[in-house]
Design a protein that fits this description.
It is built from no helices and eleven strands. By secondary structure, it is mainly β. Strands 2, 4, 5, 6, 9, 10 and 11 form a seven-stranded mixed sheet that branches. A four-stranded antiparallel sheet has the order 1-3-8-7, with no helix packed on it. A hairpin with a 4-residue loop joins β7 (67-72) and β8 (77-82). The N and C termini lie far apart (37 Å).
Length: 111
Amino acid sequence: VQVVESGGGLVQPGGSLRLSCEAFGSILFSSLVIDWYRQAPGKRREFVSMYSSGGARDYSDSVKGRFTQSRDNAKKTVYLQMNRLKPEDTGVYYCDVGGTWGRGTQVTVSS
């Protein structure tokens, strides 16, 4: 199984980005919990959001109300819609698909 994140980039504060996380390989994607984490320079990796197989979603307090995670099981893809971005959202965003991690995508929020 391989996981690939995409959609990162440079955006001004207050802007939006949509990250994608696609899984490749033979997995029962719909049964898996999908998490997003991020890691800022010099800091530990931190939890961002979770989407369970049953549809439950959870977010860290720092992104609640601004980020929304969705999933398309047919495409084996999850999305992270990030709105009202702040400089402190800067970091490498990683997707965890049932224990398989991608290599991350860089998000930079700066004016």
